[in-house]
Amino acid sequence: MTKVITYGTYDLFHQGHYNLLKNAKALGDYLIVGVTSEHFDEARGKINVVDDVLTRVQHVRDTGFADQIIIEDHQGQKIEDIQKYGVDIFTVGSDWVGTFDYLDQFCKVVYLPRTPDISSTDLRVQKYKALRIGIVGSGRMAPRFVTESKYVSGAEVTAIYNPNLESLQDFSTRPDEETRKGQPYKGFYMESENYENFLDEVDAVYIASPNETHYEYAKTALLRGKHVLSEKPLAFTMARAEELYDLATRKKLVLMEGVKAAYCPGFQQLINVAKSGVIGEIRDVEANFTRLANPGSREREDAEFGGAFLEFGPSVLVPIVKLLGPGYKDYKFHSLYDEKGVDLYNKLELYYPNAMATMRTGVGVKTEGQLVISGTKGYILAPSPWWLTQHFEVRYEEEDQVDVYDPPFQGDGLRYEISEFVRKISGISHNGYKLTAEESIWMSQIVEKYMEYKDNKKEKTS
Ligand code: CTP
To answer: Is the beta carbon of 214 within 6 A of some atom in ligand 1?
Structure first.
């Protein structure tokens, strides 16, 4: 009996997949089809797959060509499978010619002709009208967003807005960096005078303007029927955040607060491991994020809307709200300010009935940027940069017992956030469990408390 094996994602199952499976089956007597798991696709940067794994498996089964269907979930699995199942022939489409030649030590490798003019990628583009995204603000985040959005199919940055014409021009004439990958700013619709004209050119906006402008820009965009991904903090008060989410719900629009960690696959895994009970009951969360910002930067200069808390507060609040929830009973802030009144370093303690949390943020003080989640049976340690989670460990009383996790992570992490935004807009991702509206509103409540604390403190010292 000749055993044949082939692998694929089989997303939005199409004629090319059908032909490939038919031809693969014809190569032998028994066909094994490996279908990629969601996690594996995510790990190799394929973040736009529409169908879930069970749907894709069903589509393969429906062809009637597969004698056995397996799940491919890690690198190196092909060699394992070929040996485990005693495979004689490995085959894939001709788009992979050469890539799998190394398998010829284990079995025969055959590249079957690819069906022309059809692919899951094309179908995704046809099915989901490409989303035109406009960026509000042309500072540090804008070029990063442009670069990372290229890894997300179904989205294209087409416009940019900045009321400051000089900054806008500076953005458009920046020297061609490696990250520009062929002048992506060329052909952008640029607007510096009329925000509403800019909104009319796009389907969705990414707001990366100064902190104090997020709310107004988001509100105007939602009122004009545009989906919104806003940099953190979304709003300075709970009431304003609630108002924005209500507005989005009423207008059937997507509103997301862009806290990168929340959308990063490794971070989701870390949260799930913490909640799985391996460390017992969670009793303490310590989350730190500090970066020595350049003197002269907005974070170091703007006493009202710069500073460490507004810069990093939302990021460190995410693990706290995800793990301990919104129900704290008491809290305490402590901040160190410079002579201009900019908070260089903060500590916030939150007291829950059965747990506690500490967060530290800094723009002028450097400390270990770690996340430590302590439980009744053990603890999780995620070193800096835990917000772009690539490594964490579960540790126990016995020092030699350590579970190590190295989740995949690509680019600078923004692509996961953009991908979630696009998936929500196209209805592929139905609920916002990665960062819920309630969690985002709770974060605005803490920001509000911080702003009150800061105002009170200033009154006392002035
Ligand atoms: N395939 C094919 N002809 C096509 C498309 C895919 O023969 N027109 C083959 C691939 O070579 C592979 C298998 O089908 O052996 C599964 O491919 P997959 O990557 O799932 O499909 P694509 O349409 O290529 O997906 P994408 O556009 O996401 O890369």
So the answer is: no
